[in-house]
Amino acid sequence: MVRIIVVCGAGASSTFVAHRIRRAASLRGVDVRATATSEAGLERALADADVLLVGAHLNDRLDGLREQAAAASVPVAILSESAASAGDGEEALDIALGFAGAVS
After folding, report:
1. What is the largest CA-CA distance in the chain?
2. S-S: 50 plus which of 3, 10, 76, 93, CB 3.0-4.6 Å?
3. Is 83 exposed, middle or buried (0-12, 13-18, 19+ CB in 10 A)?
């Protein structure tokens, strides 16, 4: 199972992305657990993660997010605007799997 954490500022948009990733993974038969978190809950979420997806809108805070993820030995992937907004979750799933070292 690939454990994916999606972070955004408050946790709202990341919830939608995580849901779409779960749906895309289910359709592919890929075992993932995609969950959303806010920046405030990131440290706890990273303790049980294989990859962190960061919304492009958080670019100004990327250094701090990378530091937190590095402390937990979790790779960080930036979600493009298209991946974050796509209704099917396919691109976001591909990005996560690529950074987690999984085969889709």
Report:
1. 35
2. 3
3. buried
For residue 53, give both structure tokens.
């997806």
Domain that holds residue 32: 2-100
Question: What CATH code is carried by the domain that includes residue 55?
Answer: 3.40.50.2300
82 token code pair: 């298209």
Count of domains in the chain? Answer: 1
Residue of 42, 27, 41 lying closest to 76 (CA atoms): 42
In angstroms, how far is the first alpha carbon of the chain from the final one? Answer: 12
d(CA 46, CA 87): 25
Mean pLDDT, residues 43-69: 92
For 76-83, which contacts have Cβ atoms below 8 Å and span 24 or more sequence positions? 76/51, 76/52, 77/51, 77/52, 77/53, 78/53, 78/54, 79/6, 79/17, 79/53, 79/54, 79/55, 80/56, 81/56
- What is the chain's mean pLDDT, rounded? 89
